[in-house]
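We were asked to recover a plausible sequence for a given structure. The inputs and outputs are reproduced exactly as logged, with field labels preserved.

PROBLEM: sequence recovery
POSITIONS: 238
GIVEN STRUCTURE:
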């Protein structure tokens, strides 16, 4: 967001039962490995605290019947005199367990021991980025390789960034001379707190084999802001 307008996020319950969701803001910092570390509010720096203060949203809690959407309105209030820069918080959508189901999972005696049932609580976060002033950034695709992990094959590449804002966009991998992409990944970011990161994308074994050899990698801006090319590179994947 540029600080002069808001936006909307649509939350949809795709389950078969009514569900309640709680919405909140969190601070997360990117690592060189591409992960996001959650930062407690008392450990946030000035820019992170400013982001929490300037981003407003409503509602903060919703209960939705099955297949029912709800619009979450997101607004930005940039205080006068705010220094130019990028301000970011992460909006967390977290499911609230049903009270009856939660009560049934309490610890209960089972003979001489204790029986405990655990109910996972799922959530998802999305970044809310506010840019103040005339900012710019560039990114460069580095080394590319396929590796084996505990979860299966992965397509990896290094992505470096320069400038005073994040880069955020989509990655498309194609074989030279073939129009149909082998791999498409959305929402690949390098945030200002790191100058470079490693991108690792899990792929099926059959796709990992196809990705080896000469490829073209194209990193583009999000389609909603134009979809322009950030960087494009030809590499030989081993």
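RECOVERED SEQUENCE:
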């Amino acid at each position: 967001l540029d600080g002069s307008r808001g936006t909307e996020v649509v939350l949809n319950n795709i389950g078969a039962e009514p569900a309640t969701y709680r919405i909140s803001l969190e601070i997360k910092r990117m690592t060189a490995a591409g992960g996001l570390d959650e930062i407690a509010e008392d450990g946030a720096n000035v820019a992170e605290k400013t982001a929490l203060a300037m981003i407003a949203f409503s509602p903060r809690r919703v209960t939705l019947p099955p297949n029912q959407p709800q619009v979450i309105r997101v607004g930005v209030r940039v205080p006068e005199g705010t220094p130019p820069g990028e301000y970011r918080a992460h909006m967390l959508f977290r499911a609230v367990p049903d009270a009856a189901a939660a009560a049934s999972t309490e610890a209960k005696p089972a003979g001489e021991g204790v029986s405990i049932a655990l109910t996972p609580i799922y959530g998802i976060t999305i970044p809310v980025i506010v840019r103040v002033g005339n900012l710019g950034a560039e990114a460069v695709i580095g080394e590319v390789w396929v590796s084996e992990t505990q979860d299966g094959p992965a397509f990896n590449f290094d992505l470096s960034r320069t400038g005073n804002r994040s880069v955020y966009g989509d990655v498309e991998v194609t074989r030279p001379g073939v129009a149909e992409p082998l791999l498409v990944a959305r929402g690949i970011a390098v945030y200002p707190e790191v100058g470079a990161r490693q991108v690792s994308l899990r792929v099926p074994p059959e796709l990992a084999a196809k990705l080896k050899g000469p490829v073209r990698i194209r990193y583009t801006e999000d389609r909603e802001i134009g979809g322009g090319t950030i960087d494009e590179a030809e590499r030989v994947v081993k």
